[in-house]
């Protein structure tokens, strides 16, 4: 039975061509700055984002952590969405390892943070308070693309309040492909941007943090400190370079598959949230364990949750989407 894994876009297997690119990679000791493939990945992605410098790191979690720590000192504060990955899904790293106080804010339905709410949370310059230093956004946010005019407004808002602006762009390229713009058009509003290579781009490992040279220099020192300095990591960077060249435009296919899946499930009577990129959210409620077991018997893997998230990616075909819809229809009738 062929497995259809909709848990996340992190489950993709490196393709044969990607493995060949990895096998051929020129390498060196990257802690000494000697790995040409890592350097090429860093400069390629930075250039594509219109930023000065990039740094290859093992994970998106580390990339975000180093960005927050490069922007903030101990006792500083960053403002972030209540459901944002950096706040909710990274083990509280900014607080634990950076002594940075998070100030979470209720999010709007479109994935943005309201400037009114942010303004109310910014602390006055007074020694009773942590120093509010940074605003962190996420794009895509649970599959939603932040509106372009919101990003420009966030830039102006951050400037007005003396805040730096970080983007958790784990799926930045999904946002760009969906908007029909260049990644740079989104990245231009931010002081730092973290991009995952191991999500929808299909590489096995790695993220890149981009920003200006001063920020990346600070982050590089911190990367060594947290144990993220890697040696012949060009093997991994080669997969990232391959993904940037071959797996960006094809994200449109994942989005189309997600749209078809959402449409099919809606027609079958499921309550489906509007689909923008490669994530489909479905309200299943208390039947979720039964559904998960039903799907599992048919080779469909999902993470059981009353608000079910289904993610399309490189290893999900149109035929698989049809099979998933058929299984959900069968379950609804059972
Ligand atoms: C997955 C993810 C991360 C973290 O990436 P890891 O490589 O899993 O540590 C950060 N932000 C968002 C939005 C993500 O989806």
From TrEMBL:
Its cofactor is pyridoxal 5'-phosphate. The keyword Transferase does not apply. It comes from Azomonas macrocytogenes. Its EC number is 4.1.2.5. GO terms for biological process: glycine biosynthetic process; L-threonine catabolic process. NCBIfam families: GntG_guanitoxin (NF041359), PRK10534.1 (NF007825). It is an enzyme of class 4 (lyase). Pfam families: Beta_elim_lyase (PF01212). The modification N6-(pyridoxal phosphate)lysine is found at residue 199. GO terms for cellular component: cytosol. One of its GO terms (molecular function) is L-allo-threonine aldolase activity. Keywords: Lyase, Pyridoxal phosphate. It comes from the Bacteria. Residues 5-284 form the Aromatic amino acid beta-eliminating lyase/threonine aldolase domain. Homotetramer. Belongs to the threonine aldolase family. This is Threonine aldolase. Gene3D superfamilies: Aspartate Aminotransferase, domain 1 (3.90.1150.10), Type I PLP-dependent aspartate aminotransferase-like (Major domain) (3.40.640.10).
């Amino acid at each position: 039975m062929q497995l259809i894994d909709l848990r996340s876009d992190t489950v993709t297997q490196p393709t044969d061509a990607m493995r060949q690119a990895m096998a051929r990679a020129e390498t060196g000791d990257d802690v000494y700055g000697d790995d040409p493939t890592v350097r090429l990945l860093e400069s390629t992605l930075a250039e594509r984002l219109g930023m000065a410098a990039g740094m290859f790191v093992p994970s998106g979690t580390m990339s975000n952590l180093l960005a927050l720590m490069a922007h903030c000192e101990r006792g500083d504060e960053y403002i972030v969405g209540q459901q944002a990955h950096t706040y909710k899904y990274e083990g509280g790293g900014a607080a634990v390892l950076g002594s940075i106080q998070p100030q979470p804010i209720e999010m709007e339905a479109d994935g943005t943070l309201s400037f009114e709410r942010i303004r109310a949370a910014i602390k006055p310059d007074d020694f009773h308070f942590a120093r509010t230093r940074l605003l962190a956004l996420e794009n895509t946010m649970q599959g939603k693309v932040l509106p372009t005019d919101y990003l420009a407004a966030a830039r102006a808002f951050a400037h007005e309040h003396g805040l730096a602006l970080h983007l958790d762009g784990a799926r930045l390229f999904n946002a760009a492909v969906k908007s029909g713009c260049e990644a740079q058009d989104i990245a231009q509003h931010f002081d730092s941007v973290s991009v995952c290579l191991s999500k929808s781009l299909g590489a096995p490992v790695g993220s890149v943090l981009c920003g200006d040279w001063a920020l990346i220099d600070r982050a590089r020192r911190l990367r060594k400190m947290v144990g993220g300095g890697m040696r012949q990591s060009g093997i991994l960077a080669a997969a990232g370079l391959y993904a940037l060249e071959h797996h960006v435009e094809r994200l449109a296919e994942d989005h189309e598959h997600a749209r078809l899946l959402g449409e099919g499930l809606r027609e079958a009577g499921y309550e489906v949230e509007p689909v923008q990129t490669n994530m489909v959210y479905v309200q299943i409620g208390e039947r979720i364990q039964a559904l998960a077991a039903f799907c599992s018997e048919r080779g469909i893997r999902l993470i059981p949750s009353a608000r079910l998230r289904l993610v399309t990616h490189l290893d999900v075909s149109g035929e698989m989407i049809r099979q998933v819809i058929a299984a959900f229809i069968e379950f609804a009738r059972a």
